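Rotation project, supervised by the postdoc (A.L.). Task for the rotation student: set up a whole-complex structure prediction and record inputs and outputs verbatim in this book. Inputs entered:
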Amino acid sequence: MMKARKVSDNFFNKKAKEVAPALLGSFLIREVGGKKIKAKIVETEAYCGEKDLACHASKGRTGRTEIMYQKAGTIYVYLCYGMHYMLNIVVSKKDDPEAVLIRGIEIDGEKIHGPGRVTKALNINKKLNGKKLGPKDGLWLEKGETLKHQKTARIGVHYTGPIWSKRLLRFVEE
DNA sequence: TATTTGATTCTT
DNA sequence: AGAATCAAATAT
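Outputs recorded:
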């Protein structure tokens, strides 16, 4: 029997490509307005620093990517296509811009696919950008079971060219 | 200051 | 296959 517990801080100190698959099966807890939502993570993607052309930080340190240079456990939220928020968890070390995108979750057995829908279901908005995971801002993580997963190519990053768009950095529950 | 574009999703 | 819709990064 494994009791739900907060993950240790050094859980996020690893590289994105290690943290992303490890997050599968863990629970994302969202508490807002007295309501608590427990979401199992079933799909993630890794974004690996400035060398990764699909990572926003590949363009260098800018106002937007500054968040990814913060220390592990920082929340990176950003608006894409003018209508969808993306939820990312900054990992690795300070000044090493890596992050894990939460692409799919499961709430009460109901699967939610797509990063835009995840943030909608969890009431994630830009106010969380730059905050830390924890009860203070009503968003944190609890360790769950370890899931088997499969690796696939990332989605929506065709513009990065054949190399980075084909890297197997997307992790899905098997 | 103007233009381009995207870690998407829903409709036609 | 295309529209919706806007903030941030580039280009001018």
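Student's summary: Chain A is about 10% helix and 35% strand.
Supervisor addendum: Chain A has a mean pLDDT of 94.
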